[in-house]
Design goal:
Blueprint: E1 3-6, E2 10-16, E3 19-25, E4 28-33, E5 38-42, E6 48-53, E7 59-63, E8 69-73, E9 78-82, E10 88-93, E11 102-107, E12 113-117, E13 130-135, E14 141-148, E15 151-156, E16 162-167, E17 172-178, E18 184-192, E19 197-202, E20 208-212, E21 217-221, E22 227-232, E23 236-243, E24 249-255, E25 268-274
Parallel strand pairs: 1-22
Antiparallel strand pairs: 2-25, 3-4, 4-5, 5-6, 7-8, 8-9, 9-10, 11-12, 12-13, 13-14, 15-16, 16-17, 17-18, 19-20, 20-21, 21-22, 23-24, 24-25
């Protein structure tokens, strides 16, 4: 049975241009405002801080186990690391592998980072499939998957065994086994869907939440495709993350989509709503 919820999410923050890549860490929600080119940290009371300016559209984030932050700077075709004192250092060069825009990042429990590229210059460029690259802790980069249809959000299961990828143009979630050397194998469909999955997160019951821009919703789905819950709001949902004090708050970054522009109107919001299961443990 699908539970549909409309307009019951609490608005924690307004004035965002285009929020993406939310991550819960150390009592705050960290997310990227692509339009303002700001990395923002937001607490559950709605107090926010601009942590860094990142001159890139897009840029995405995830945390290493020691708390240091990795930032994918698509404009520079590189991954940078934010140190505890706020300084930035080069972590990996991506341009030698592919000179197209780089998008999402996820870090596993061994310190391996997976970064994907959509494979073409969106939206004007001729469509091409994208890739997933592995960045090892020593900064080495290699391709581990190809022919993915507009890769977007990624999540890794707590046991480090499986990577789940949202293919927005493929309208599916795709799973890969993670090999001992960090490579990806045994590619398979995790769930087919009617929508266009963008950012995703994994909960403790093994279900995935995915954000959907054109359908203005977030959807909770089980492996195999069963839809468990659908949250509808009044603008496009770009990504989501589970967190909060008990891990049961679903944070949604949403905006009225007007195209990839850094001077768009700030229609973006960060919303929060109670979820039926807490976040999965980080791998």
């Amino acid at each position: 049975m699908t539970v549909t919820t409309s307009s019951k999410a609490q608005v924690l923050m307004t004035g965002v241009v285009l929020g993406e890549s939310p991550r819960w860490r150390d009592g705050r929600l960290w997310f990227c405002d692509w339009g303002a080119q700001q990395l923002i940290a937001l607490d559950e009371a709605g107090a926010s801080e601009v942590v860094a300016h990142v001159p890139s559209f897009p840029f995405c984030i995830d945390f290493l186990a020691d708390g240091r932050l990795l930032i994918v700077s698509s404009a520079q075709r590189r991954v940078v690391r934010r140190e505890p004192d706020g300084s930035m250092s080069l972590y990996a060069e991506l341009g030698g592998l592919l000179d197209k825009p780089w998008n999402e990042i996820v870090v596993d429990g061994r310190g391996n980072a997976y970064v994907n590229s959509i494979g073409f210059n969106f939206p004007e460029g001729e469509y091409a499939t994208g890739v997933i690259a592995l960045v090892t802790p020593d900064g080495a980069v290699r391709q581990v998957a190809d022919e993915v249809e507009f890769p977007n959000g990624m999540a890794i299961t707590p046991d480090n065994s499986t990577l789940i990828l949202a293919e927005s143009y493929g309208r599916r979630l795709t799973a890969f086994d993670i090999d001992p050397d960090g490579g990806l194998s045994n590619r398979r469909v995790w769930a087919e869907m009617d929508g266009h999955p963008d950012g995703i997160c994994l909960d403790a019951e093994g279900a995935v939440w995915y954000a959907d821009v054109p359908n203005q919703c977030c959807v909770r789905v089980r492996e195999g495709g069963e839809v468990l819950q659908r949250i509808e709001i009044d603008r496009g949902c770009f990504s989501c993350a589970l967190g909060g004090a008990d891990g049961r708050t679903l944070f949604i970054v949403a905006a009225a989509w007007g195209g990839p522009s850094s001077d768009a109107e700030p229609t973006g919001q960060v919303l929060a709503i109670q979820a039926p299961a807490p976040a999965a443990e980080r791998p």
